[in-house]
Amino acid sequence: MAHSSRAPSATSPRQHQRERLLWLYRAMLRMRMAEEKVAELYPQQEMRCPVHLHVGQEAVSAGVCANLTPEDRIFGSHRSHGPYLAFGGNLGAFFAELYGKAAGCCRGRGGSMHLLDRPAGYWGSSAIVGGTIPIAVGTALEAVYHRKNSVSVVFFGDGAADEGILYESLSYAGLKKLPVLFVCENNQYATNSHQRARQALDNISERGPVFGVPGVRVDGNSVLAVYEVARESVRRARMSGGPTLLECDTYRWKGHVGPVGDIPMGYRTQQELDGWVARCPLRQFEQMVFAEGVLKQSDLDGVKQGLAREIDEAVAFAKASPFPDPAEMTA
Ligand SMILES: Cc1ncc(C[n+]2csc(CCOP(=O)(O)OP(=O)(O)O)c2C)c(N)n1
Ligand SMILES: [Mg+2]
Predict the structure, then answer these.
(1) Which ligand has its closest atom nearest to the C-alpha of 254?
(2) Under a CB-based contact definition with an 8 Å cutoff, are residues 263 and 270 in contact?
(3) Band of pLDDT at residue 6, cut at 50, 70 and 90
(4) What is the mean pLDDT of residues 88-107?
């Protein structure tokens, strides 16, 4: 848990619960608002990298990352803003990277699909589907070898479950009982292709146990459900109990790539999208905390106002920042 704090240091269980809930809400809203800002500004054509937005999928990154510490290592994919923004990612470095500026987390050379910021716990992302999965396993092996208390967490899509590298990685991690958390964000689609058109069975989580890796399937739109299963998995990994494969059912609201929706393309229906929008992870969370009386509207409004300021400042910083010096092209 990084962006605003480490684990809450509250005194009473209720206070502890309140701080935890506020952290989860802030993490989800930070992703949602930052990506909505990307979508708003993208048509200005100043961000020149492709963007794969994960609006609708925020509960996965938030619920998992709430269990991590700065010693852990996070890896992402082409749809990679979530874990960066949920954990240690700096908003100024994030926007500057999307604008290709020298102040970006990769000095403007990576763009949206190649975020990397080790001080922020983000050890890399890649446009090669499944590409970071074996790297996460390698870093977990290194952690064991050097007796570090680090867990490696890799986020990937259901499309990466079409790649052989996932199974090689599960096999080795299961054999060596490595501290890895494999997090599959199953949003049902790989570009425009439904999981049913690509895989005989809807059973990604069940593919872990054949390699000695426990598999858990969870409602990926419930931040608390994700938080609970990730907590147990991370705890086990830290105690040398080995890896876990989490399959989180969720849904992307925007098109595969770019800032807008894609229903007119015809590969999915408005009705299907509407069904998932009704299960918005943020809205579900708000309904739950109000019903239980743990947080009030004013608590959440305060978070929202603070983030709006933070995002505006980050965008202004990114726009005003210089481009990298061409003389450093090969540095
Ligand atoms: C090895 C490889 N094969 C194909 C592609 C083209 N490609 C880019 S994104 C994508 C779909 C990935 O789907 P999924 O893993 O489910 O992630 P999502 O986009 O749904 O988050 C594909 C096939 C690629 N980048 N790398
Ligand atoms: Mg997918």
Answers:
(1) 1
(2) yes
(3) very low
(4) 97
Beta bridge partners of 117: 122
What span, in angstroms and rounded, lies between the C-alpha atoms of 117 and 102? Answer: 14
| Ligand 1 atom at shortest distance from the alpha carbon of 187 | 20
Strands (E), the chain: 73-76, 122-125, 152-157, 180-186, 189-190, 193-194, 215-219, 244-249
Lowest mean pLDDT among 80-89, 198-207, 208-217, 243-252: 80-89
- Given a cut of 60, is residue 262 above it in pLDDT? yes
CA 65 from chain center: how many Å?
8
User: pLDDT tens-digit profile of 310-323?
Assistant: 999 999 999 999 99
The second-level CATH assignment, the architecture, of 24-326 is 3-Layer(aba) Sandwich (3.40)
Report the predicted TM-score, pTM, of the whole model to 2 decimal places. 0.96
Q: Closest ligand to 160 CA?
A: 1
Closest residue by Cα to atom 3, ligand 1, is 129
DSSP 209-269: GGGT--EEEEETT-HHHHHHHHHHHHHHHHTT---EEEEEE----S-SSSSS--GGGSSS-
Given pLDDT bands bounded at 50, 70 and 90, which one contains residue 2?
A: low
Q: Whole-angstrom Cα distance, residue 49 to residue 98?
A: 7
Q: How far is CA 177 from the centre of its chain?
A: 24
How many CA atoms, within 13 angstroms, populate the side-chain half-sphere of residue 115? 32
Is the Cβ atom of 132 under 6 angstroms away from ligand 1? Answer: no
Q: What's at 194, amino acid-wise?
A: H
Ligand 2 centroid to 190 CA: how many Å? 4
- Long-range own/partner contacts, residues 37-46 (CB < 8 A, 24 or more apart): 37/95, 37/311, 37/315, 38/81, 38/98, 38/259, 39/254, 39/259, 39/260, 40/259, 41/315, 42/258, 42/259, 43/259, 46/99, 46/319
Phi (first) and psi of residue 274, to 5 degrees: -60, -40
Question: Would you kindly state where each structural domain of the chain is located, as residue ranges?
Answer: 24-326
